[in-house]
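Hi R.,

As promised, here are both runs. First protein below:
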Amino acid sequence: MSLLNEIMDEINSVIGQVSDDQLNNAEKLITKDKRIFILGAGRSGLMAKGFAMRLMHIGYTVFVIGETITPSIAKGDVLVSVSGSGTTKSVLEPTESAKKIGVKVIGLTSNGTSPLAQVSDAVIVVPGATKADDSVKSIQLLSTLFDQSVHITMDALVLKVSRRDNVSNDQAKATHSNME
């Protein structure tokens, strides 16, 4: 078996364990009348930024925590927090603060019993290997399997939202950057 096939088998195994019910619960929190904030660290943060971009493409007001143009978060907003372990302090602490002021939280983590999962209004468990937990075996380094799988999961969530909102590919293309 080629290395690429082995990687794809790992990803397929993880994606096969992601709950449709959890995706549906998260989808309900993402509505056009809410501002969406995105939070993640390291590679998980990069995957989260891709999610933010796709939400923008389908017409959402979305901000990435840590960017200089990100406004303060407020009661009624939605925060999407991504942490493989569910314990990353730079993700967990701001998430807990947001929750205290009335922000709805969508958490994506590999650990369904983690502090991030517990503080989330909707949690999506993506059980890929992470740097902090090797109970899921992977041939890949550190949290690569989680990062790949969470990227696909968030893309699936955007697709669900776009279908619900009747946003076509052509409409999404119209918001794509024209400064390239």
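And here is the second one, sequence first, then its structure tokens:
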Amino acid sequence: MTKLQSLVYFATPEHECSYLEGRLATTVFVDPTVEIDFETYSRLSLNGFRRSGNHYYKPKCEACSACIPVRIPVAHFRLSKSQKRIVSRNKDLRVNIRKAEYNPRHFALYEHYINSKHADGDMYPPSLSQFENFLLEARPETEFVEFLAGEELLAVAVIDHTADGLSAIYTFYDSRHARRSLGVFAVLWQIAYANERNVPYLYLGYWIRGCQKMSYKTNYRPLEMLVHGRWLGIG
């Protein structure tokens, strides 16, 4: 395992923040030429880093600390009434787990999702190269979890396995099935999957105060936040 303090890190110049209007952001990346093994990746996740393709990063903004890493301690998670209804509405879905490899159905669904849900974001317009760089430049432990109604592909959750849990990399789904709340259901399924595998945490990335797109993460309780190097529980 590579010790985190021995890794080389690079900081980007300040750039426009993707989440908070009017803010400038700086991102720290691990040297992309270094091969990150499983244990090192697990330690990076534990210390608030995220993965996008072959890049491992975390925000490090001089004047802002709004991006807070969060994780769910799955053994203590309890479904709310609304979450129970979402599970019930999706009990007909079939789940299929695949390796990270190109599938034209996955890309078509990803393209639909970005166009319908994130046309105002920096991932628009979607492209095949973007999809490949983001999701198919994966790790050996990466899985693509398909949610199907019959043979119709409704959602895909991309997850990584780490030493102490699962890391939710990205979920994309068919927005025409709004009643199913597929994004929520995908998270609930991942919580159950982590429990089934007897690993303690589901890492959800960053909760960002003031960012509506990230506010959903506090709907999963209890939740832990990484604050000043310590994971602290909230309700």
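A quick note on the second one: The CA atoms of residues 110 and 172 lie 6 Å apart. Let me know what you think.

Best,
J.
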